[in-house]
Amino acid sequence: MSRDHVHSDQRSATAAGASLSSAETPFLELLARGASAEAYEQPALLARAEGRATEQIVALEQAKLLALRVRSELEGRRRREAELSALFETAHDLAGLRDLDAVLQAIVQRARSLLGTEVAYLSLNDPARGDTYMRVTEGSVAARFQQLRLGMGEGLGGLVAQTARPYVTDDYFKDDRFQHTLSIDAGVRDEGLVAILGVPLMLGHHVIGVLFAADRRARVFEREQIALLGSFAALAAAAIDTANLLTETRSALADLERANEIIRDRSGVIERASDVHDRLAQLVLHGGGVHDVAAAVSQVLAGAVEFTEVTATPAQALEASRAEGHAVRHADDWIAAVAAGGELLGALVLRGQPGLDPVDQRTLERAATVTSLLLLARRSAAEAEQRVRGELLDDLLDARDRDPRLLRERAARLDADLDATHVVLAARLDAAAADADQEAAARRRLWSAASHLAATRHGLAAARDGGTVLLLPLEPGDTATAVARRAARHLGTAVHEAVSVGASAPVEDLAARPDTVTAAYEESRRCLDALRLLGRSGDGAAAEDFGFLGLLLAGDRDIAGFVDRTIGRLVAYDERRGTDLLHTLDAYFACGMSPARTKDELHVHVNTVAQRLERVGRLLGADWQSPARVLEIQLALRLRRLSAPAQR
Asked: Alpha-carbon distance 556 to 508, whole Å?
């Protein structure tokens, strides 16, 4: 090759390089200002329009291709930088996790922004229902879509959740790789979605949900975009796992705090229980009584605790406590039965504390047990006294000791007053026992209850004739009937069986006339027999309750008392007013209760008879003409006439 040709080629190359260098200049400016891809066509088009040389146009085309590659590389790097920045920010949010919903919302927002989709959303699996449900959405406008639930294998998301693999569809409704359902398709159609990409949220080898990016137009998702969404899904799974761990940690801490509180509370309760145990032990050792126990428990439980008798305690709650062996709630109170064997002795009642700690409840129950032990101990000590009381009553009934002074001294040692007015009661169990042993046990319970009643009422009691006899003082204003009925209720409640009680008329001067007690006892037994014959089981009564039959039952045949109770008001009225109602009543009965015949017998006007009978009704009561009352009134009138000569 000649030297000229060499120089010629060098000049051409230099010119071409210069030409290429000059061709790159406009593209460098486009790259510098970040122009769009369409702007890179302008330099070549302008050169053609100006009619430049072919070498220049070729150089521009080559420079354009090079610039576009550089632009693409720069955009890719910027995109990766943005993606890495978004992933970093998301990881930073995850590191400072406070609100799981906020972190998941940020993940979905950034995924939508970086992938340039119109909608992004995240669903979580529900192990209890075996499906997956929508948790977070961004860009969604359809309410039905936001509330979708997908069964495993249903829809694109169900397929991702089932297979643990990413799935992408360019056109959802034309894709038959997954199962279409009416509810899912309706939700997708409401949202207007066409292209959908879904990637699984994985914790280990388990799918816990799906992260989606979707457009309302056909679109092809690139591999890099699928990978990016997968990275966000990994962060979302980590966020959920972290939140679950935090929740479990907080729950464990809360459980520990509650356990610590329970331990502290139980420690306090145990200390209180130990305190009450020590106090009760000291009370027992120092001979404390029932009310001392109640006072000690009141201090420990910080409430008012009192011992109540059986009759003063709500029967249903008391029986429930005895049957269950535990304290039971009654309104705002707690009742713990005090029982020994099958016998109720009373109750410990905690007032005004409807909410009671179980350990405090147990403390009340233990106090009731200690109370029953104290009562049993006191009963053992009192049995000797009861025997002495029974011996004194036996002596009065048998009239063996007639020295009034000795009788009074013996009674005084038992806190009884034989100079007071008393009532003699005969008590007997109504139910027949199955065998001799049960009958003997029942009689012992009745005697024990009667002895307790007598001791608390300053009276005497003894077992006699298959039942029990009591001698109780009669309080002012009280009656023999009232005493009998109270005794029947008290004894029946104490032994859990019906107890009938017959009462004598009030008796006096027991020390001076011991035989009076014997006569009164026979009268009370006749009343008791009358109750049983009349079917009044579990009741109490005295002779005065049986009308004219009481004359047959009463030991002294108290005729004057019967007459006074029956027609005493008429007698007093006639004596006070100078009227003749008794004579009118005699004539009225003699004339067959006919007012017309009565007016002829009395030689008065029939209106006078009517007025007198009206006055009788006001004095004797509206039922005075009933058959039973008529019989009693006629008997009283006759007895008064028969006893009149003796009264003169």
From this structure: 14
pTM of the predicted protein model? 0.37
Greatest C-alpha distance within the chain: 193
Other CB atoms within a 10 A radius of the CB of residue 442 amount to: 18
CA atoms within 13 A on the CB side of 250: 6
| Contact indicator for 124, 177 with CB cutoff of 8 Å | no
The b/e string for 386-395 (b: 16+ C-beta within 10 A; e otherwise) is beebbebbeb
| Rounded CA separation 539/489 (Å) | 8
Write the CA distances from 179 to 161, 172, 184, 191, integer angstroms: 13, 11, 10, 19
Beta bridge partners of 149: 133
493 contacts 344 by C-beta, under 8 angstroms: yes
In angstroms, rounded to a whole number, what is the distance separating the alpha carbons of residues 448 and 468?
10
State the DSSP code for 2. -
Among 380, 334, 386, CA closest to 356: 334
DSSP 190-255: HHT--EEEEEEEEETTEEEEEEEEEESS-----HHHHHHHHHHHHHHHHHHHHHHHHHHHHHHHHH
Look at strands 131-138 and 467-473 and give their pairing.
unpaired
Query: Do 201 and 210 touch, CB atoms closer than 8 A?
Result: yes
Model confidence over 144-161: pLDDT tens digits?
999 998 887 788 888 888
Please give the single-letter amino acid code of residue 582.
Answer: L
Closest CA to 582 of 563, 596, 597: 563
Tens digit of pLDDT for each residue in 521-542?
887 787 777 677 667 788 888 8
DSSP state of 432: P
Spatial separation of the C-alpha atoms in residues 425 and 450, rounded to whole Å: 10
Which residues, at least 6 apart from 202, have a Cβ–Cβ distance to it below 8 Å? 164, 208, 233, 234, 237
Question: Among all chains, which residue has been given the structure tokens 């045949």?
Answer: 557
Tokens representing 223 are: 């591999």
Q: What is the pLDDT of residues 39-48, one digit of tens each?
A: 777 887 887 8
User: How far is it, in rounded angstroms, from Cα 64 to Cα 53?
Assistant: 17
For β-strands 540-542 and 499-503, DSSP reports them as: parallel
The pairing of beta strand 499-503 with beta strand 206-215: unpaired
By the 8 A CB rule, do 385 and 455 touch?
Answer: yes
- In this structure, are residues 581 and 570 in contact, taking their beta carbons and an 8 Å threshold? yes
For residues 385 and 49, the model is more confident at 49
For residues 359-380, b (16+ Cβ closer than 10 Å) or e, as one string? ebbbbbbbbbebbbebbeeebe
Tokens 């030409």 map to which residue? Answer: 19
Distance CA 356, CA 301 (A): 9
